[in-house]
């Protein structure tokens, strides 16, 4: 059984403390203002386009997080602000020397 990004995000929303952003391609409540930011980010880091699943996630949801202090859990899928840490505000490099996204 294959899960698409929308199925995975629907499951994520069931987790206490989860937040999901609104990218320009989100099925409901899209935010077209993020389209140029994502395009600029991918132009700056073209190797990231090879990860089509992550690009689709950013296009649709822009970022996600889970913050559950009771369970001492913090998960942050970087993207653009609203539901996650913003790529533009990260300390240090966002992409390593091999063109891989740094997020852990």
Give your account of this protein's structure:
The protein is an alpha+beta fold and 104 residues long. The protein is 27% helix and 12% strand. The protein has three helices and three strands; from the N terminus they run αβααββ. The chain has helices at 5-12, 35-44, 52-61; strands at residues 18-20, 64-68, 73-77. Strands 1-2-3 form a three-stranded antiparallel beta sheet, with no helix packed on it. Strand 2 (64-68) and strand 3 form a beta hairpin. The mean pLDDT is 88.
List the helices and strands and how they pair.
Elements (H helix, E strand, L loop, with lengths): L4 H8 L5 E3 L14 H10 L7 H10 L2 E5 L4 E5 L27
Descriptive tags:
104 residues, alpha+beta, 3-stranded antiparallel beta sheet, 3 helices, 3 strands, 27% helix
Q: In short, what is this structure?
A:
With 104 residues, the protein is of the alpha+beta class.
Oligomer class? single chain
Count the helices. How many? 3
Percent helix range: 25-40%
Shape: globular
Distance from N terminus to C terminus (CA atoms, Å) equals 28 Å
Side-by-side strand order of the widest sheet: 1-2-3
Largest sheet: 3 strands, antiparallel
Beta-strand percentage? 5-15%
Q: State the order of secondary-structure elements, H for helix, E for strand.
A: HEHHEE
Count of strand segments? 3
Rg over alpha carbons: 14 Å
Structural class: alpha+beta
Show unreliable segments: none
**Integer average pLDDT:** 88
